[in-house]
TrEMBL record:
The lineage of its organism: Bacteria, Bacillati, Actinomycetota, Actinomycetes, Kitasatosporales. Keywords: Membrane, Transmembrane, Transmembrane helix. It comes from the Bacteria. Residues 106-322 form the Endonuclease/exonuclease/phosphatase domain. InterPro entries: Endo/exonu/phosph_ase_sf, Endo/exonuclease/phosphatase. The keyword Transmembrane applies. It comes from Streptomyces griseoluteus. This is Endonuclease/exonuclease/phosphatase domain-containing protein.
Length: 331
């Protein structure tokens, strides 16, 4: 009996158990809460923001460990990451779509090595989109898309690796330089890494007036052994697009793009200040688009201003490493 009493005294109280689990729970909460303040040295901050939703996976894992350890302190500490994650992403989980809409748009990085461009084009045309933006076109694949889409889309513009197909008239299509922009291009030497034009601007004539439309494919990001998360080309393109969008006086504007980064990434702070994401305002869930075989991030976006989004969704795969996305909007 005396031995059992001594064991009970030696056993830590529930509030004192699991100090490591408690510390991990608090650290997780702080990462979610203060992610914007994390240094971007070696791209750390940007990388963290691209995987931010997935940090929520650690909440149930730590909760199971805390319950097994019977640590009240760890369970209580987990309230911080749970509340912060729900505040950041909980609104994405419910269905925000509504019926109706005047304009359906779609965008897709079709992949330079897509094995069947013609089949991909037919899949995209079947979406019913009035506007269809394609990224990562090549001189070899572009003619296949032109031929397969001509019966559905009487108007189109291809400039470099991006193109827009439309059921409505297009005018004044011209390239947007997102490669050689500002001091970033000079200091980070990223321009030479992105051949060809990668963004365009045009005006779509609708029954309710003109809509400015941008199509863009920002530079890729890379995990480099020595320099960390390399984002130079992507960041240059984001800055150039921000400048173009903010200078555009059009009351109605669409940006259809492969951003090579999620909407939470700090590289898009400027765009977030001027544009809305259809997935955030009218979608259900995260709408992940990449990689197509097991989507873990939404790096493709339909962004807008001066319109209202009714619905946002992903489309079936086409053989690309990205999934296509679509949205319906109202004037």
């Amino acid at each position: 009996m005396m031995r059992n009493a001594l064991r009970a005294c030696a056993r830590p109280e529930p509030w004192k158990r699991g100090p490591v689990l408690t510390a991990l729970a608090l650290l997780l909460g702080l990462l979610l809460l203060l992610h914007a303040t994390i240094t971007d040295h070696a791209g750390l901050g940007s990388l963290m923001e691209n995987v931010l939703p997935w940090l929520g996976v650690f909440v149930p894992v730590l909760l199971a460990a805390a319950c097994r350890r019977r640590s009240l302190s760890a369970v209580t500490a987990l309230l911080l990451p749970a509340v912060v994650w729900t505040t950041l992403f909980g609104g994405l989980l419910h269905d925000k779509s509504r019926p109706g809409g005047d304009l359906t748009v779609a965008t897709h990085n079709v992949g330079a090595t897509n094995p069947d461009p013609t089949a991909a084009a037919h899949t995209l045309a079947a979406s019913g989109a009035d506007l269809l933006a394609l990224e990562e076109l090549t001189p070899q694949t572009a003619p296949s898309y032109e031929k397969a889409l001509v019966s559905t889309y009487p108007y189109h513009a291809i400039l470099g690796t991006v193109g827009l197909w439309s059921k409505l008239p297009l005018s004044a299509a011209h390239p947007i330089d997102i490669v050689n922009y500002g001091p970033l291009a000079a200091t980070k030497s990223a321009a030479a890494k992105l051949p060809g034009n990668r963004a365009l601007h045009t005006t779509v004539t609708t029954p309710d007036g003109p809509v400015a439309v941008y199509v863009a494919h920002l530079g890729s990001v890379r995990l480099m052994p020595r320099t960390g998360f390399w984002t130079a080309s992507r960041d240059i393109g984001a800055a150039a697009l921000t400048k173009a969008v903010t200078a555009d006086p059009s009351p109605r504007l669409l940006l259809l793009a492969d951003l090579n980064g999620t909407w939470d990434d700090r590289a898009f702070n400027g765009l977030r200040a001027h544009l809305n994401s259809t997935q955030r305002t009218s979608g259900t869930g995260f709408g992940f688009t990449w990689p197509a075989t097991f989507p873990m991030a939404r790096i493709d976006q339909i962004l807008y201003r001066g319109l209202e989004a009714n619905r946002s969704w992903t489309l079936p795969g086409t053989g690309s490493d990205h999934l296509p996305i679509a949205a319906t909007l109202t004037w």
